[in-house]
């Protein structure tokens, strides 16, 4: 069977589904191909689900700011409860981290600098002896990730996008000014192909005759632990300044992570016992919680470009091949703005005005910025 579209998007996580929705809304015929049996099976479905405007570098922060009104508008469009639920973020500085705290509060204007005593009022389980100060992001939030993904899926299909699961892309070639793809035994033709498959993007690029750009999947572990003391649902998300642990309330339990970044090949990631134990150890060292019992644990792959800035734009060598990759640990909170940037570049050749107003330029996101690094950055 042969299928035809203006654009084939490869990957059904948050990057692919938001891109499909943005392109379909602009009137393009979109086919989305997901290799797994269900959408959002890997990193998107395993997110810590936080919206943090102080997280990441300047480009990531700008993309996050530009995503917030889009997320709010999506919920209003569907008439559903808000997709963002208030939960402040408290960056906690130990005695050796004060310079990091000062640097971050200087860079991020909306952070509120707190003394140690003020931090302990917000979260009394912090250990006073290892808390030297803090910074509060009062407008941080929890994200309803699956509801956000589903809202984007509905937006995509309402505008005519076709979504197929269980259809891996085996390869493809340029033909007649477009693409002919081998998708699970079918032939799909398209004018453009979008690499939006997270950890698998470099691998897919090579199947389509392009060079990899040096993407590195890094495993991140999350655990839900029972707390020996009652968990106050009003506690903020806590993270130390060097970002070696974080935790937040999860119902009656506590969600935590050692903020690990273990290099990995693209795979269905699994939590390692030693990483879960490390997360518990680090949270217990910073708090008086005394966590011991694990309810459940999982891992996901956060895929970064060498400069840790997301990648969005056309391949430098292969016509009609586009990258939407390297979202790292910021993929959910930046996805709406990234999709808008992508759709603008593919259809109009420029970024939306609000992203430009945030100081983002095309060169910040372009995959061609990574061309020099690509041959050496790829891990065996």
The dominant shape is elongated
Low-pLDDT stretches: 372-380
Query: What does the average pLDDT come to?
Result: 94
- Round the Cα radius of gyration to an integer and report it: 21 Å
Query: Sheet bearing the most strands, described?
Result: 9 strands, mixed
Helix-strand category: alpha+beta
Number of helices: 11
Please count the beta strands (DSSP E, at least 2 residues each): 20
- Helix fraction, binned, reads 25-40%
Beta-strand portion reads 25-35%
Note the gap between the termini.
36 Å
If you had to describe this structure to a student in words, what would you say it looks like?
- This protein has 380 residues and is of the alpha+beta class.
- Helix content is 30%, strand content 28%.
- It is built from eleven helices and 20 strands.
- Strands 5, 6, 7, 13, 14, 15, 16, 17 and 18 form a nine-stranded mixed β-sheet that branches.
- α1 runs parallel beside α5 (145-158), α1 (14-25) packs parallel to α8 and α2 (58-78) packs across α8 (331-347).
- Mean pLDDT is 94; it is low at 372-380.
Features:
380 residues, 11 helices, 9-stranded mixed sheet
Topology:
Elements: E1 2-10, H1 14-25, E2 30-34, E3 50-51, H2 58-78, E4 84-86, E5 89-93, H3 98-107, E6 112-114, H4 116-122, E7 133-137, E8 141-143, H5 145-158, E9 162-165, E10 169-175, E11 178-183, E12 186-195, H6 201-207, E13 216-225, E14 237-240, E15 246-250, E16 253-257, E17 262-263, H7 273-286, E18 294-304, E19 311-314, E20 321-325, H8 331-347, H9 353-357, H10 362-365, H11 374-377
Helix pairs in contact: 1-5, 1-8, 2-8
């Amino acid at each position: 069977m042969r299928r035809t579209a203006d654009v084939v998007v490869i990957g059904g996580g948050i990057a692919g589904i938001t891109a499909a929705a943005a392109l379909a809304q602009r009137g393009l015929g979109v086919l989305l191909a997901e290799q797994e049996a269900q959408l959002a099976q890997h990193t998107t479905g395993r997110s810590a689900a936080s919206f943090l405007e102080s997280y990441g570098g300047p480009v990531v922060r700008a993309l996050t700011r530009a995503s917030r009104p889009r997320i709010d508008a999506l919920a209003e469009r569907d008439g559903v409860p808000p997709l963002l639920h208030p939960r402040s973020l408290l960056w906690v500085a130990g005695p050796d981290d004060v310079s990091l705290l000062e640097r971050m509060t200087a860079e991020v204007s909306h952070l509120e600098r707190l003394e140690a005593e003020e931090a302990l009022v917000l979260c009394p389980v912090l250990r006073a002896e290892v808390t030297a100060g803090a910074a509060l992001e009062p407008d941080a939030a929890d994200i309803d990730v699956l509801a956000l993904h589903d809202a984007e899926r509905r937006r995509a299909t309402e505008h005519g996008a076709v979504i197929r699961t269980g259809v891996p892309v085996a390869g493809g070639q340029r033909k007649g000014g477009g693409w002919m793809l081998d998708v699970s035994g079918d032939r799909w033709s398209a004018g453009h192909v979008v690499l939006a498959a997270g950890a698998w993007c470099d691998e897919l690029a090579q199947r389509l005759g392009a060079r990899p750009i040096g993407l590195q999947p890094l495993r991140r572990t999350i655990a839900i632990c029972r707390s020996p003391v009652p968990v106050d649902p009003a506690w903020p998300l806590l993270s130390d300044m060097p970002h070696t642990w974080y935790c937040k309330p999860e119902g009656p339990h506590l969600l935590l992570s050692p903020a690990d970044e273990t290099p990995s090949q693209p795979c269905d990631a699994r939590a390692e016992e030693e990483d879960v134990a490390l997360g518990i150890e680090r949270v217990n060292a910073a708090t008086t919680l005394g966590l011991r019992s694990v309810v459940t644990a999982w891992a996901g792959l956060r895929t970064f470009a060498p400069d840790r800035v997301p990648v969005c734009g056309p391949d430098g060598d292969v016509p009609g091949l586009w990258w939407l990759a390297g979202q790292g640990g910021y993929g959910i909170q930046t996805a709406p703005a990234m999709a808008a940037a992508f759709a603008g570049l593919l259809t109009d050749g420029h970024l939306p005005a609000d992203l430009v107003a945030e100081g983002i330029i095309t060169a910040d996101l372009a995959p061609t910025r990574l061309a020099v690094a690509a041959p050496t950055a790829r891990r065996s």
